[in-house]
Amino acid sequence: MIPTKNFSACTSMIVGKNASIDGSIMIARNEDSKASWPKNYVIHPHEEFDQPQEFSSNDNGFKISLPTIRAKYSATPEWTDKFGLFEEDGFNEYGVAMSATESTYTNKLALGADPLVEDGIGEEAMITVVLPYVKTAREGVQRLGQIVEYYGTSESNGILFADQNEAWYMETGGGHNWVAQRIPDDSYAVIANQSAIQGIDFDDPKHFMWSTNIRKFVADNHLNPDHSGNSFNFRQIFGTADLSDTYYNTPRVWYGLRMFSPDLEFDPTSQNMPFINQANRKLSLFDVQDFLGSHYQGTAYDPIGEGSEHDKHHFRPISLAKTQEAHILQIRPNMPTPAAGIQWLAMGVAAQSSFVPFYAGATDTPAEYQHASGTYAPNQAYWTYKLAGVLVDPHYVSFGPKLNDTREDLRVAFQQAVKKADAAVGGLSNVELADFLTKVNFENAKTGLTAYNKLISDLITHSTDFSPINFKQDVNL
């Protein structure tokens, strides 16, 4: 029997600028929680206050005093703040991108020495108290690291940061410790609910960061399993490698390597797959979309494939019904900051939704993305994309091609829309650019929703043919 955990499950990918086909840096993640738990997409304006503000979490009571200047930033909060904000991902006005979090787990030995802090910072608060207050990705790591060290954290997490120059991945271990690694420009990484970062080079602060006393803490508590004592492998010291990982986590990393580094030979349950990898080609935005929307296609483990019933449900797929939203935060080179960043947002299940491009420099989001309700309602972006998937699910063989045709058509349409908008940004003032990008975002949102509403109409029209109380009458009667 597989041991059980209270999983809060996501899958992440990071691509360095020299590893991408167009020089973009990309940080991406599926936010997985519940099968029907809507998300909004909002933009908070730049604000300046006379007095420091206080953040207080509805989730676990975490409190922190915030600076008086809050930069403009985008986010994808829950439909209700009853259980916390969970703003999850976005860009700020300085072009910094952040995605939080990839849930991970600290082993019991490390937790015994540094337990989690019940009212410390958690996923729910991280975007809200970090992203509006930093001007670079490195500053983002430093600010969150200082918070974790001072207040403690209530969870083990991985956090993604990027700006126009660098991409970083940060992981916490226990209540107060953390490390971060800069993703090499020529590399990519895929992460799936396990501590991923391996060797830390304490002589290389340009590419690694860490909590103040982490080396002393590990030594004092005898946590390093390395025989020589000369290496510091964060995954081995703080992470887990149990039976749950081999069924739930490592297969997703394996499939990412299978997609992008097929010459590497690992089993789906291997605990030794490297964190940093080089792809066999330059990676495009579509490659990242395909990864986030994947479910072991081309293998016996595909839940909608042709493998045995055992194999089809043996491993947890990357894209699954519990995805609330999927995002790719893309930062393009040689563009003004407001137009360089694009928040590609797919509401609902990545395998069934479509990634809509939203320029970071906009000042507002469409109404369909702002007022989600907890139960199905028309004219809401989350529920529109979710409904299409629900209608396809019972008849994947018949309706899957219709869904895929819509998704492919939108890929082309959105690429054309981005190219057209990019060509028009030169020479615009800051105000004109913000207004223009907002208009483009609204148009892109409409394009996606219109296409999916048309698909939904088609699916409903043809669904009656599959009714169990249907009857095919003899044409001669």
- With strands numbered from the N-terminus, the spatial order across the biggest sheet is 14-1-2-16-17-18
Helix content: 25-40%
Q: Quick one: biggest sheet?
A: 6 strands, antiparallel
- In DSSP terms, counting alpha (H) and pi (I) runs of 4 or more, how many helices? 13
Structural class: alpha+beta
What labels describe this entry?
single chain, 477 residues, alpha+beta, 6-stranded antiparallel beta sheet, 18 strands, globular
Give an account of the 3D structure:
By secondary structure, this protein is of the alpha+beta class. Helix content is 31%, strand content 19%. It contains 13 helices and 18 strands. The protein has helices at residues 108-113, 123-130, 137-151, 214-220, 234-238, 243-248, 250-260, 285-292, 309-312, 337-340, 381-392, 396-424, 430-463, and strands at residues 10-15, 25-32, 42-44, 47-48, 53-56, 63-66, 69-70, 73-75, 89-91, 97-104, 156-162, 167-173, 177-182, 188-191, 208-210, 323-331, 341-347, 356-359. It has a six-stranded antiparallel β-sheet. Strands 9-10-11-12-13-15 form a six-stranded antiparallel β-sheet, covered by helices on one side. Strands 3-8 form a two-stranded antiparallel ribbon. A hairpin with a 6-residue loop joins strand 5 and strand 6. It is globular. Residues 1-7 have low confidence and may be disordered.
